[in-house]
Amino acid sequence: MADITLTAAVRSNLSTLQSTANLISDTQERLATGKKVNSALDNPNSFFTASSLNSRASDLGNLQDDIGQSVSTLEAADKGIQGIDKLLDAAKGKANQALQSKDADTRAKYASEFNELRTQIEDIAKDSGYKGKNLLGGDGNDLLVKFNEDGSSKLNIGAVDYTDLDSEDAAFKLEGISTTVGEVEARDLKQAFTLGEVGQIPGQSGSATTTGLTDAAGTPAPIDGDETVGGTGATGFTDITTGDVIKVKDADGNYLKDADGNDVSFTTLGTNTLQEVGDGIAQALRDAGEENASASISVDGQLTLSGLKNSVELEHKTSSGTAGQALDTLEIRGTYDIKDTKLSDLGAFEDGDRISFKYGDNARQYFDVTDSNTVEDLRAAIETADGVATEVNASFKDGQLILDVGKQDLTFGFDGAGSGGEFADAAKNVVGKDLDSVAGRGWGSDELIEESLDQIRQAQLDLRAQASTFGTNLSVVTNRQDFTADLINTLEVGAGKLTLADSNLEGANLAALNTQNSIATSTLSLATQAGQSVLQLIR
Fold this sequence. Notes:
The protein is an alpha+beta fold. It has seven helices and 16 strands. It has four domains: 1-33 and 502-539; 59-185 and 442-491, CATH 1.20.1330.10; 190-198 and 340-431; 207-335, no CATH class. The chain is 41% helix and 13% strand. The chain has a four-stranded antiparallel sheet with strand order 6-5-9-10, covered by helices on one side. Mean pLDDT is 74; it is low at 181-187, 198-240, 321-336 and 434-441.
């Protein structure tokens, strides 16, 4: 081709035709694909920017599918809650019917129907899943909804458990009812525990007895200003006169006071008998809070004060202000009060022993015996333990620990070197043992039916609160679903602005190029006519 010689005009026209043909080809490609940028060669900046936008839109599109499935999961859970709420209404109706009937067989029948409704509640919850995720199924069913590509924007929707109402993890409490007639009337809700033999604790005795309050004949006698009671020194009274005062002190030497803050005392009269003296002292003690204080005089003239909780001392002063005899040195020890006694001082317990207890199906709890804790510490631990109901009451009476569990089961255990007393006695280590637990409380009394109604009402409150929570979650998810759809559209439109061709513009360009191509072809033809004239001359 290098040997072929073309005129400048021909070469110019050929170049124009080639350029026009390339432009026509590019324009036809844009019209065919609808894009003005089909590869990085067309426009690298626009091509790669548009590719990035389209990739993100694609990723969000995949997330949009997952978000849509999350909406369906929430809707399935909401349908389950609606079904459970209707069953709770039906269960409430059965309980009210049982409440209106006093026939045990009829109540057992309604209890059976109630239990069936309870089973259906569990079944509906089990059937409320969607694609393997059940928000009413408890552990392992939490739903994580991701809203962006790296998962930094997300919502965790916690599952609740309605599938096993006997479980401690159940979202609400609805106990099954025993259908055995009369079973619920036999209950042992109260138990008295004797905590073992009390050792001889220094300074503790049941009562105080003193001699000396006798006359010469050994019999109780009036006390007046002229009489000298037989005996001398610390064993008897001498020179007791009208107006003598007997006061009471505690073990620390402080005077005991009555409710008004006055020192309690007894003042003798000239006509007092020994019994009246003793009664006067006992009354003074009762005024000071020793409500069980009493006095007695034996046939040999001994004064005995009994029923005291604390140690006291009696002080006797004559009407002249001088100290009287005997009573000013007499110390009376209070009766033994078990609540203040150290457990390790009881015959049944040793340092290092462990008392265990639990309420119903709650976790077992432990109380460790030490050299310092008291019976009162144990009582407080039992009464304030985790899972305890407000009805539980622990108190002391006659040296025993009294436990009243109300409507709960309380089980004890013991481990250690001591004997454990009655806490280790299998016959007494369960209080409320005839209370039917989860599977059978019975409807043998109106109180128990009311308890079931209370549970239903609380269950419905809990259920509706959970429905509200799921509703809020659904609003968040649907809002993000709409937002994601709008964002995907924005990304795709932005990518299109960079790469999409204007078909009207490209059509006009093609028409113009075709016209230009025709003109260039004609021009080339004219340019070659000069050579043809020379050829004619040669011929």
